[in-house]
Design goal:
This protein is mainly α. The chain is built from 3 helices and no strands. Helices cover 73% and strands 0% of the residues. Keywords: Membrane, Transmembrane, Transmembrane helix.
C-alpha cells in the first residue's frame, strides 16, 4: 500500500503542484495578464470539490454556510483543510496507479519465465 515508489511519486506530484503555484504566490500583485486566466481556471478546478461536497450536503465547507448573496462564497478553514486532504488522496491514488502500472510488466514477465 505505501510502497517506496508510490511515496516517491507522491512527493514528485506534490512538488510539481507547488512549482506550478509558485509564480502565482510570488507575483500575486504583479502577475502578468496572460498568466491570470490559467491560474483562475486552475484555482477553479482545484476548489471545485468543496462546492460539489457542499452541494451534496457536507456542512461547514463554505463561509456563511454558502449564503453569500449573488457571489460564490470562498471555502472556510475547514473547507481548505478538506481540499488539502481531498487532493492528497487523489494524488496518492494516481501515484499508486502509476506505481502499479510500472511494476506490472516486471511481475508478469517473472511469471512467464517460471512457466
Amino acid at each position: 500500500m505505501f510502497e517506496r515508489t508510490t511515496i516517491k511519486l507522491l512527493c514528485v506530484f506534490i512538488l510539481i503542484n507547488a512549482l506550478v503555484w509558485l509564480p502565482y504566490l510570488l507575483l500575486r500583485d504583479n502577475l502578468p495578464v496572460y498568466m491570470s486566466a490559467p491560474y483562475a481556471v486552475l484555482g477553479f478546478i482545484q476548489t471545485m470539490p468543496v462546492y460539489l461536497l457542499n452541494s451534496i450536503g457536507f456542512p461547514g465547507l463554505l463561509l456563511n454556510n454558502g449564503q453569500c448573496g449573488w457571489g460564490w462564497c470562498s471555502p472556510s478553514t475547514f473547507g481548505y483543510c478538506a481540499l488539502l486532504v481531498f487532493w492528497l488522496i487523489v494524488l496518492w491514488l494516481i501515484a499508486r496507479l502509476v506505481s502499479l502500472l510500472a511494476s506490472a510488466p516486471k511481475k508478469h514477465g517473472a511469471r512467464r519465465e517460471r512457466d
